[in-house]
Amino acid sequence: MDTTADTKQNKFQVDLTLLDAGELALLQKHTGIQDTEQLAKHVQDVVEKARQVFGYGYLTQLLFLKSKFTHLPAYKHVLEIGKSREDALLLDIGCGLGHDTRRAAWDGYPLKNIVASDLYPEFWTVGHEMFKSTPETFPVPFIPGDAFDNDFIPDREPFMESPNTPRPSTDSLVLSKSLAGLQGHITFIHASALFHLFGEDAQRNLAKKLASLVSPVPGSMIFGIHRGSDDVKPEEKMDSRGEKRFYHSVESWKRLWMGGEGQEGVFPPGTVEVEVGVRQLPMPEGMYHLLLWSVKRV
């Protein structure tokens, strides 16, 4: 999730009219609060608590309650396979408070095949508070950790054949505090609002980490949405904390995964298809140029 520090802003005022009907219905269903004024107060209280815990600027926007899945063309394929294939595991990495994690379950993706992950366990704790759930009522395993940490996701090349080791049980996965046991086993990896937080080299490293997790079975996929360049070329900019961020263009994003123009791809040639769409999103600080993308094993 976008982690721009922003603890000094005025108190965020919740406006639930910014949610579409499906997003509002999901929030009402999970919280059990139908009255929109009471619901807005509940969201407001949790947002203020989350800001105190994390100090993250994205929590001052209602974007964190809006589903990214509904904007992603790949999501239809994810749901179709998830509902029809017994072992189709979905990882929501950089899940934040778990809105999209819950959206997948709401849309019929089997709970037993969903795993969530982000940097800190407090994300999931606050998420349970937001949606008035518990580990018993929403039993999706949450594995906290840093995707760049080799103990969390070891460096290795993408799987060309299915792993010889069985997929770990939920209990062993939680106890391991690592995604290492899932390398080569994950059918779908959702990674939204994540890559654009880093520089170019770190994004390549992250792409390799996620590539090691995804299953070699055709149709398996890494997909998401994040900020990109508003030019035909990629851009490097400084964020509000003085850290470099790299915004890919459509073509540079494709080259990252498939290679081309002298650049080696994360995956070997001919093993993936990459689809990239573009969407403009008006924000207070200006227009955001978003990449909606999927990397599918073939």
TrEMBL record:
Q: In which pathway does it act?
A: Secondary metabolite biosynthesis
Q: What Gene Ontology terms describe what this protein does at the molecular function level?
A: transferase activity
Q: Which UniProt keywords apply?
A: S-adenosyl-L-methionine, Transferase
Q: Which family does it belong to?
A: Belongs to the class I-like SAM-binding methyltransferase superfamily.
Q: Under what name is this protein listed?
A: Methyltransferase domain-containing protein
Q: What is the lineage of its organism?
A: Eukaryota, Fungi, Dikarya, Basidiomycota, Agaricomycotina
